[in-house]
């Protein structure tokens, strides 16, 4: 294998277990196996197996893929998807609230991401902003509105650090960024998606408030958030992509390019 197309096409099949022809042009991305299970349950299809690194399922004209946690995995996912050039990708991820305004279970529609992870520097110079495709965020906002749900907009800070909740200096820095939340994937997904000409957006669920000790995620708190909000999160993702698939009047004239 010599070309990028040959490599990514071969690896996408290897990681997901899906043939390229089986992968929909409309893709939901996640970090969580239980989101794949919820997708299968909501769509009435058999639960995806665990034979491959990236659990995947097809239903309703959509492919859902769990690419794992973190910035390098996010970059890998967007590079692999360049083999099939999807029409739309939507990331359903969780985030920690930075702003004191955010509460558990809130939805955040990120309009930009701060590139604090480093991985995206392999694709663009540091001064290039990381932003989602407007058409995707417009679709999600329409679905949130139609479901009578409030949500926050703003930026999300993407870091490659997994354990920082004890680091007061880092938390002070996060406050200076004026970001609404912190995560580990958005900036990479947006940047590498842009690099590969793949429209991608995100809908984030606030799963913890790590700026204060009592808000740090625990086994118990994560189970509670999953129980109360995860299913709706997946449902909103499905509805958002279907809004694009079936050509909502609101989105009909929007196009993505660079």
Helical content class? 25-40%
Count the helices. How many?
A: 7
Please tell me how large the radius of gyration is: 17 Å
Going by helix content, strand content and strand pairing, the class is alpha/beta
Q: How would you describe what is shown here?
A:
With 258 residues, the chain is α/β, with parallel strands linked by helices. The protein has a single domain (4-245), classed as Nucleoside phosphorylase domain (Rossmann fold, 3-Layer(aba) Sandwich). Helix content is 36%, strand content 21%. The chain contains 7 helices and 8 strands. A 5-stranded mixed beta barrel has the order 4-7-6-5-8. The two termini are 29 Å apart.
Outline the secondary-structure elements.
Elements: H1 4-16, E1 26-30, H2 33-43, E2 56-59, E3 62-66, H3 71-81, E4 88-97, E5 107-116, H4 134-146, E6 152-159, H5 168-176, E7 181-183, H6 186-195, E8 200-208, H7 219-245
Parallel strand pairs: 1-3, 1-4, 4-8, 5-6, 6-7
Antiparallel strand pairs: 2-3, 4-7, 5-8
List keywords for this structure.
single chain, 258 residues, alpha/beta, Rossmann fold, 7 helices, 36% helix, globular
What is this entry, summarized?
Helices cover 36% and strands 21% of the residues.
């Amino acid at each position: 294998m010599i070309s990028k197309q040959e490599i990514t096409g071969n690896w996408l099949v290897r990681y997901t277990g899906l043939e390229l022809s089986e992968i929909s042009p409309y893709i939901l991305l996640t970090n969580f196996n239980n989101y794949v299970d919820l997708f299968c349950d909501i769509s009435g299809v058999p639960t995806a197996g665990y034979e491959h690194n990236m659990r995947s399922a097809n239903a309703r004209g959509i492919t859902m893929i769990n690419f794992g946690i973190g910035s390098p995995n996010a970059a890998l996912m967007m590079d692999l998807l360049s083999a099939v050039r999807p029409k739309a990708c939507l990331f359903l991820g969780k985030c920690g609230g930075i702003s004191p305004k955010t509460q558990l279970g809130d939805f955040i529609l990120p309009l930009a991401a701060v590139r604090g992870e480093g991985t995206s520097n392999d694709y663009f110079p540091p001064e290039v902003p990381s932003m989602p495709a407007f058409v995707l965020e417009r679709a999600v906002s329409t679905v949130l509105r139609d479901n009578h749900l409030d949500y926050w907009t703003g930026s999300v800070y993407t870091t490659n650090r997994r354990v920082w909740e004890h680091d007061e200096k880092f938390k002070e820095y996060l406050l200076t960024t004026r970001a609404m939340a912190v995560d580990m994937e958005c900036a990479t997904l947006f940047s590498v998606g842009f690099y590969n000409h793949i429209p991608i957006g995100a809908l984030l669920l606030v799963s913890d408030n790590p700026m204060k000790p009592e808000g740090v995620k625990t086994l118990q708190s994560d189970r509670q958030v999953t129980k109360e909000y995860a299913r709706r999160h997946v449902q909103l993702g499905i509805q958002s992509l279907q809004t694009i698939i079936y050509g909502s009047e609101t989105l009909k004239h929007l196009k993505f390019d660079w």
